[in-house]
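Team,

Forwarding the record for the chain on the shared tracking sheet. I've put the sequence and predicted structure together so nobody has to dig through attachments.
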Amino acid sequence: MTTNRTEIAVGAGVLALAIGFLVYAGQVTGFGGASGDVYHLTASFRSAEGVSVGSDVRLAGVKIGTVTELGLDPQTFRAEAKLALESEFQLPDDTAALVSSEGLLGGNFVELVPGGSMFNLEDGQVIADTQGAVSLINLLLKFVSGSGDQ
């Protein structure tokens, strides 16, 4: 009888720990959804290498959204990224979107650099000023071969 109670207590503790871990993991990854309202923007990149659905969208290093869709525009052959941003961050309409890297071994994310316009981007608008990913391999090859501008 004592063994059954001990097993039940240990099992309940393990189950509570597993549920707590799942809740924590959902909050850290943003799986539970955004905390408030979101609005959507689109950005077109020459190269979105390293960015995928679920990648962070950051402003001044702080996550304010995620990439919700990534595809190729058949007319322009550019990568089209749909961004879902927290609605409390209203960005000027001359905001730039850049594909940035967390470091040599880190992943890529979309960085937003706000401009100085008096008018804000509306839900569904396109960010006009974009800069695609810079290939580290190409930069190293240019450096090694000495074909870079001097």
